[in-house]
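Bumping with the actual sequence this time:
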Amino acid sequence: MTKKKTKKTSPKTQKPGPKRNKKAATRDKILEAAKKVFSEHPYSSASIRMVGSAAGIDHPLISYYFPTKADLFEALVDEISETYYHANTAWFEGLEALGLSPGLSLYIDRMLDFISEHSETLRIVALNLVQPEESEVIPAYRQMQRLTVRNIETFRKVSALRTSTREVRMFTESFNALVINYLGAASYYAGILDMKPGGPAYRRWVKETLMALFLPQLRQLIRGETHSPS
């Protein structure tokens, strides 16, 4: 008597159930609320209670997803850093077919469009940029620094430069510093100029300033010109 062979079936891929979807939605809701809170308050003064209030969630529930404020802030910075990094990479697309001036102009336009839709990103960085030397470094501070480093690497890869890493760092870090200040602290600088932070006049001023300062430097980088320290 022979045994019937049982047909083996491959396990089906489990689809996310309602419970899992609800957890993911709750986590996203917490992160979205955290983005708002941390863009209005520095890490030291923001609280889990504030995030719970902004999300409409009992703040003790947040600890199920993020046990501490540090865990929540690190997760948030990781998310916004990845979003900004991939967006920055996309801003370079097609620029090689343009001249330096129209290429830089288009890059800045793309950046400004992104920031207008994700204004919290640079405000979070600007609020937490300065760290007292005596105090402990806040969570995710290193992640914010790594974002700048990654953007420098992207710039080197997509541009045909014949100059040193030092010159590239001077260019990109100076550019990033002004962008963080002009856009992350837009209320301050627009107030000095008697403009609205999100208005077209201030956007024009930021773009014209960046073009005036960095287009000559970019030309020098492309030509391989360097400046020896005096």
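The tokens above came from a reply further down the thread. The chain is about 70% helix and 0% strand.
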